[in-house]
Design goal:
The protein is 32% helix and 23% strand. The protein has 475 residues and is of the alpha/beta class.
């Protein structure tokens, strides 16, 4: 009996370790550019340190990659969630019918069944109705009761990553969302609160504010969320939305000002939303998935999720095929996402702990709304060749290290760009991250600079929608 009891206690300890690892990893979404590293020896026992805010328990932090619109109730199985994990995702946001009491545990169990590799954000229709005031006249009381019930039932589940409180709230809901956040912190400080805000093309009536900037400032001031998530679907039937870069620029600016990490969506499905005032969107190509990812990375995103994974059912919006179609079959987008996520895991892992210093557009004939034009910055003196987006990042721990992310501005054409480096960079070492499949993480290869001794040039060749990350070790 003693041996069996010891084995049970050891199983409990292993579960706790997995639970803390999973919750802490997903709270990386809220960790931003400064991550605190905690020795693994502290993981085995609960501590008040777990309640002080986002942290990472090992230096092998993964870049958060999630899905919106998971498999519907009839397909909420371990096999279907293994399919999600095999595509390179590491968290799931509930929805697509998986938003009721009888389905929460089934989804959590399915998420945890595949090598403990998926976290799950509960989307609960009763909680969301309480936030809207449809459960009781006393919204605060209704929210507290539902949060308490959900946490009593599911907080011990190792796959629980947090609660999805609301999608695209009007500013009139900020007060009750702030209350829900305070209650969640009081009841379960280790669980992450998730809210997704409107894109810049939303109407003032939907925002509850005269301008998008005022909407975001009001949200961050009132709710003080752990992360800033937004959705913007740029791929129109022809071309892209005119304010895509503006949206990313505003998100980046307010994220930096309020000290919270930003996170966005990847449009992974075509749809016709003209009944609800949305222009038609096209099905993305593989290059366009990569392009959206790289724009987000250049603008400092600390997590991404795909809209959508499974074909949603919506009476007002007609959806094309997503990664998984309505019959449950993988489409070509599943394979595209699998490859894009393999890349994102390597590059995102490098960028996750870094601080975004600047993002500029170079060699564009007409600067998009919200974009900043390139200027010499002490690292790159000039840019020639094809248009690119340059994101520069610093390493908070190494003052002589800067990172340069070079993204092709074009979704459809390859690019050759010549970057004239400053003397400080030329006298140091330039290395490129090797993100090839099968290459170990954090593998950098030296890159020779061309040109003369007084004008050293980094030539960057990029396929459509692609990007490269360079580490600049200055003297």
């Amino acid at each position: 009996m003693a041996g069996k009891a010891d084995g049970y206690r050891e199983a409990e300890r292993r579960l706790l370790r997995r639970r803390l690892d999973r919750a802490s990893f997903l709270r990386l979404i809220g960790a931003g550019a400064t991550l605190s590293f905690v020795p693994a020896s502290l993981v085995a026992r609960p501590s008040s340190a777990q309640t002080t805010g986002p942290e990472i328990l090992s230096q092998e932090g993964e870049y958060p990659i999630g899905v919106w619109s998971p498999p519907p109730p009839r397909e909420t199985t371990a096999a279907r969630y293994a399919e999600i994990a095999n595509a390179g995702f590491n968290f799931v946001i509930g929805g697509n019918g998986v938003n009721t009491t009888d389905l929460h545990r089934r989804a959590l169990d399915a998420a945890w069944a595949h090598n403990n590799s998926l976290g799950f954000f509960l989307t609960d229709n009763i909680l969301q109705n309480a936030i809207k005031g449809e459960v009781s006249p006393d919204r605060q009381d209704a929210v507290t009761k539902r949060l308490t019930r959900l946490l009593d039932d599911y907080r011990a589940h190792p796959a629980l990553a947090g609660l999805n409180l609301y999608d695209e709230p009007n500013s009139r809901l900020f007060g009750i969302l702030a209350y829900a956040k305070r209650e969640l912190r009081r009841l379960a400080p280790q669980e992450l609160l998730y809210v997704n805000v409107w894109p810049s093309y939303a109407a003032p009536r939907a925002l509850g504010a005269r301008t998008y900037g005022k909407y975001l400032n009001r949200y961050l001031s009132a709710v003080s969320p752990p992360l800033l998530s937004f959705d913007h679907y740029p791929l129109l039937s022809k071309g892209i939305t005119s304010d895509y870069f503006y949206n990313w620029a505003v998100i980046r600016n307010v994220s930096r000002r309020f000290g919270v990490p930003s996170r966005g969506f990847i449009q992974s499905v075509g749809f016709d939303g003209r009944k609800v005032g949305l222009s038609r969107r096209r099905k993305p190509t593989k290059n366009e998935l990569f392009w959206q990812i790289n724009v987000a990375l250049a603008y400092g995103a600390k997590g991404l999720q795909y809209f959508t994974y499974w074909n949603p059912v919506d009476p007002q919006i007609r959806f094309g095929n997503a990664l998984i179609n309505s019959e449950g079959d993988q489409t070509d987008l599943y394979g595209y996402a699998q490859k894009a996520n393999g890349y994102l895991k390597k590059v995102g892992k490098e960028l996750l702990p870094l601080k975004s210093e600047s993002v500029v557009h170079a060699k564009e004939r007409r600067l998009p709304r919200g974009a900043k034009a390139f200027r010499a910055d002490g690292y790159v003196n000039s840019v020639g060749g094809d248009p690119v987006i340059l994101g520069r990042f610093s390493n908070p721990d190494v003052s002589t290290e800067q990172y340069l992310f070079v993204a092709n501005r074009s979704l459809a054409n390859s690019a050759i760009t010549l970057l004239t480096m400053s003397a400080a960079v030329s006298s140091g070492v330039v290395e490129r991250l090797d993100h090839s499949p099968g290459v170990p993480d954090k593998t950098y290869v030296p890159v020779p600079l061309e040109g003369t001794s007084s004008r050293r040039i980094l030539q960057v060749t990029l396929k459509a929608g692609r990007a490269e990350l360079y580490r600049l070790r200055t003297a």
